[in-house]
Amino acid sequence: MWIQKKLDICWRRLLTALVFPSFILDAQTLDKKITALWDASGSCHSMACLSVRTAFDLLLSALAIAPGDEIIMTAVNIPHMFQIASDHGLKVVPADIFAGTIAPDIASLKTLITAKTKAIVAAHLFGARADLAPIREAIKGRGILLIEDSSQYFPGPAEELISDVRFYSFGTIKTSTALGGAVVSVRDEKLMAAMKSRHSSYPRQSEFSYKLKALKTMLLKFISGQRVFGVITRLCGAFGIDIDAAMYRATKSFTGNDFYEKIRQKPSGQLLHTLLQRLSSFDAAGARLHKERCDALAAELACKYALPGSAAPDHIYWAFPVVSAELKKKIPRFRDKGFFLSSQQGICVFEENSEALNNACALTGGVVYLPVYPELPDAELDRLKKMLLE
Fold first, then answer.
1. pTM of the shown model
2. How far apart are CA 299 and CA 219, in angstroms?
3. What is the pLDDT of residue 108?
4. Which residue from 174, 214, 230, 275 could staple onto 18, CB 3.0 to 4.6 Å apart?
């Protein structure tokens, strides 16, 4: 059984994260080496954080937010991002998207901007990068912060900052995962200084908790093997267990009631060490081959399926989604043939069933994720493609 999503980390990295002697690591030095990868361009000031949630919370804490201030956000994101904005006293104003580009609909977005608009958050979903030029032009000279949520889009380190703030995520299921961690880049030096000042007061994530996560990820990687996952899928079916929901819970971060206590921590030295290793050895050639392979598949499937992000200026295919109610009904058939298609997702629409967010609601309501990644052999990809086009 080909699982829907492979963890982007090898056994050697996981073993190093588990057994490397953390006491010899200097977290501050590691942080400087990580942020230097982006700051060398001179266009930004960067910082490593525990997660994108941590970085977003820090950013909003550093801004002067007044009662009634608004933040426009791409209508599709993870629930925690909407929660953080609301908890900081901001009124969240969701912006609908174009299905092809998954970018905010610029025409409708312009109507949402008011004198109370503090910032705009544009999320690059599924690995498809939104074109920010129209948004930058719309807010030029209005003192509105443009924020890129690049949690699902990572083309490699040292990318130049084109917005005011950008978040990259290296959580468990992300590209170049470090089993956690994030990098935030900010154009304004004073804003970054305020974020760093608050961040310095946070306790550091325990090395034990990080190594425990490495052990858990090793188990998940073992489970995700083709043969093992096939056995587990059949066992779950026999006992009436929802395998989709179980896998989602296993990779979910920051569960429980103590959400802010969990995200308001500095990353451990071992997390930073793993992150620096991943960034320093980023496989640009492999990423390019994966993109070319997915582009070719998308071109053949376009005649039958709606492909979110297919019209985006750049798409690195962190995930390979298609939108099709018919295909959603056929998921059991594909699983019987060894392909674990899934409709389980961690994203949501800020206001479900909203008529003003038709595209966003249609996207999340009908999306199916295909098991397309570098480890899938060409022969199996051809077999999957044949089934999809039948």
1. 0.94
2. 36
3. 87
4. 214
With CA atoms as reference, report the closest residue to 119 among 66, 52, 54, 80.
66
Mean pLDDT across the stretch 122-146? 93
At 311-352, the pLDDT tens digits run 999 999 999 999 999 999 999 999 999 999 998 778 888 887
Q: Give me the residues paired with residue 166 across strands.
A: 148, 185
Partners of 149 in beta bridges: 123, 167
Indicate if the alpha-carbon torsion angle 353, 128, 6, 55 is positive or negative. Answer: negative
Q: Is residue 67 part of a domain?
A: yes
Instruction: Point out which residues pair with 184 in neighbouring strands.
Output: 47, 167
Cα 174 to Cα 274: distance, rounded to the nearest angstrom:
14
Where are any strands of DSSP class E within the chain?
45-49, 70-74, 76-77, 91-95, 117-123, 128-129, 145-150, 165-169, 182-186, 314-315, 320-323, 348-349, 367-370
Q: Check which CATH number belongs to the domain holding 178 and give it.
A: 3.40.640.10
Paired tokens of 102: 């998954």
Query: pLDDT digits over 16-25, tens only?
Result: 999 998 889 9
Give 177-203 as a DSSP string.
--SS-EEEEES-HHHHHHHHHHHTTSP
What does the angle CA 131 – CA 137 – CA 143 come to, to the nearest 5 degrees?
Answer: 115
In sequence order, the 6+-apart residues with CB closer than 8 A to the CB of 36 are none
What is the distance of C-alpha 117 from the center of its chain? 25
* Radius of gyration, alpha carbons of the chain: 21
3-state secondary structure of 374: coil
Q: Is residue 258 part of a domain?
A: no
**pLDDT, tens only, 212-240:** 999 999 999 999 999 999 999 888 888 88
**Counted domains in the chain:** 1
The span from the CA of 163 to the CA of 192, in Å, is: 14
Range of the domain at 145: 24-199
Angstrom distances, CA of residue 363 to CA of 96, 198, 366: 11, 37, 6
Looking at residue 121, its pLDDT comes to 96
Rounded to an integer, the average pLDDT of 89-109 is: 90
Q: With bands split at pLDDT 50, 70 and 90, how would you rate the model's confidence at 39? A: confident
